[in-house]
């Protein structure tokens, strides 16, 4: 039994191997500098030999004035201990999960600059600590939870398949974080309540962006799904977002609204009392009622300007039922099909739907329902 469980775990982990590019990390983290002062940063899904998160923090250790950097990796990681020169420090026959603890970074080699060779030397000399973990490095394991408790800010790209659990743990231990996740995670019933209550936000360099992630050799890629550069495979991943609970300047910037509310331009949903605003830039500046907007609204969301009421999607898992969104119903459904409408919609679903000015039955995919706190008179 335990063999099967382990196999299952390893299979899932295999699909989670997407390695974040250093440039993507740099682009986002430059907005958080003030938060790192004298803090303990924990990267808990990061092979210290591989992760660009580790590389970023260790090479910027002094600039950010970090107190400590802790990095742990997972035994399932198939490329553990294969790339960086750091692997010379600890040679093992099989990939083992490690814990790296860094409290000092300086020009140990004396070559005039700080690079990964200094980092390796500082591990060798014992000034920083590199030790095998007792267990498999699972972020939920006791030893990793102990490290989590000790740390201030968690920064990583966690396994996509465990995103819900991952966030739940951070919330449980009341940790600050900057992590990568999929755009659709916003509407997970475990995540949306935090978005609604202004406890989790999207980061800065998140605009539904599609990015390349390095992946292990065994990934099958086509021209559409990835590329190979210098023998290294990169997968093209859609809808990647940064999720954080650290305060950002962006969150306090007011969205400039230019449109006036004209009833003909903003149809009402048939199953919820709100208007459809299909483009975030079209949010009217003078509408005081409820509005349905695409989830990319969260890129511009300022809690002083707008209130989030809920979220409507197909399943009603979070929000739709609770907010009182009605089922789509047979009538709209039959008109939609008669007009040639396709897709996965059924009368029992709870995404918000409407008729446009020409009587065309229009579905929506997912909508965040909002209200302007200070609509223009
Ligand atoms: C999306 S990858 C990102 C890797 C690295 N953080 C980065 O950004 O380059 C997720 C990583 O989490 C690891 N992982 C999978 N399950 C894990 C678990 N239960 N606990 C800790 N790490 C896990 C995988 O081995 C994988 O390396």
Question: Can you offer a commentary on this structure?
Answer:
The protein is of the alpha+beta class and 377 residues long. It is 21% helix and 19% strand. It contains 10 helices and 17 strands. It has helices at 2-15, 22-29, 33-36, 52-59, 116-124, 142-150, 163-172, 192-196, 320-323, 330-338, and strands spanning 40-43, 68-72, 98-102, 129-132, 153-156, 176-182, 201-202, 211-214, 226-229, 232-237, 240-244, 275-276, 290-293, 306-312, 354-355, 361-362, 367-372. The strands form 4 sheets. An 8-stranded mixed sheet has the order 4-3-2-1-5-6-11-7, sandwiched between helices. Strands 12-13-17-14 form a 4-stranded mixed sheet. A 3-stranded antiparallel sheet has the order 8-10-9, with no helix packed on it. Strand 1, helix 4 and strand 2 form a beta-alpha-beta unit. It binds S-adenosylmethionine. S-adenosylmethionine binds at residues 13, 16-20, 45-46, 51-53, 74, 76-77, 137-139, 156-160, 162.
